[in-house]
Amino acid sequence: MSRRRIAYVLPIHNEEGNIPLLHERLTAVAATLADRYDVEFVYVDDGSRDRSLELLRDLRARDPRVSVYSLARNYGHQIAVTAGLDVADADAVIVMDSDLQDPPEVSLELVARWEDGVDVAYAQRRTRDDGLFKRTTAHGFYWLLSHLANVDIPRDTGDFRLMDRRVVAELRKHPEHNRFIRGLVASIGFRQEAVLFDRDARHAGETGYPLRKMLKLAGDGIFGFSTAPLKLISRVGGTMAIIALLWTIYLVVARLVSPGSVIEGWTYLAAGMFLLGGIQMLMLGVLGSYLGRIYVEVQGRPLYAFAVAETGPPER
Questions:
Q1: By Cβ atoms counted within 10 A, which residue in 44, 142, 187, 204 is the most buried?
Q2: pLDDT in tens, 263-309
Q3: Is residue 139 within 8 Å of 128, Cβ to Cβ?
Q4: Cβ-Cβ contacts under 8 Å for 106 (sequence gap 6 or more)
């Protein structure tokens, strides 16, 4: 009977300062699992501009368990993870970031939950060594997402998780471009449980998620799993229509009761017009976000393209 396999999927983007220590710690974890599983490491380089790809090829030359895939350009973290999931062929797949904020040792707890029959064991942050701004915005995002999303997406979770082969197979059936993987996994179902951990500080380099990318990911999470913004447009529009109707009734009654009176307040009227105009533009922006997502999906373009794919035993 063949041994079961576990694959680590590791997206890489400008991580030359983290790769050596990352693989060293992964190797130590793999040694703990070696008596029960065959372990492989799937590194997906997401268009790095530093020496990351060179270091990955060096790892591959020294460790036959390493596979290296290099995307043709920088597609983004979620697409890089998707590419790794598409090529990983194992009984369980562990996705984790490569900046060592996701401790490799926690993956042993994920494997233990999988052995107990869990299909998805996701790492949930108990504490996080981030700045005040990052902690505050993350808390606000997950609070908003929990109130808007039509599926239960666990709070304080990233993509650090173990997924059974069946879950990965179902995830591959979701081809959308604006991806929010933790939401997709939550929507698939199966038995899912949390493993609490303390998130470390980034070991080296700069974050791959500046504010612009964080906002895009937040938008993908909200627009991809909630129609609440569209419903909000109708509610705001209805509220403004009622206010306008009441104001019209007031003007008519005031004119009938006191025909000689002059209704003043053109400044307030102008301010109200600008307010209504701003609300309308905001509503159009929400509609445009949904329309843009439809346009991208209808195009049906491939999610990614590989420039380099090095698998199997390295050449000597």
A1: 44
A2: 556 555 655 666 666 667 667 767 766 776 675 666 555 665 556 56
A3: no
A4: 123, 160, 195, 197
Q: What is the 3-state secondary structure (H, E, C) of 10-52?
A: EEECCCCCCHHHHHHHHHHHHHHHCCCEEEEEEEEECCCCCCH
- Angle formed at CA 237 by CA 264 and CA 178, multiple of 5 degrees: 135
Q: Please tell me whether residues 102 and 248 are part of one structural domain.
A: no
Residues 34 and 117 in one domain: yes
**315 located within any domain:** no
Q: Global pTM?
A: 0.70
Question: How many domains would you assign to the chain?
Answer: 2
* Cα separation, 313 vs 309, whole angstroms: 13
Would you state the structure tokens that stand for residue 267, as one six-digit string? 């400044």
**Residue 292 sits in the same domain as residue 240:** yes
Q: What is the pLDDT of residues 94-146, one digit of tens each?
A: 999 888 888 889 889 999 999 999 999 988 887 766 666 666 766 666 666 66
Region class of 161: left (phi > 0), else alpha (psi between -120 and 50), else beta: beta
Question: Do 243 and 207 share a domain, yes or no?
Answer: no
Query: Does residue 8 sit in the same domain as residue 29?
Result: yes
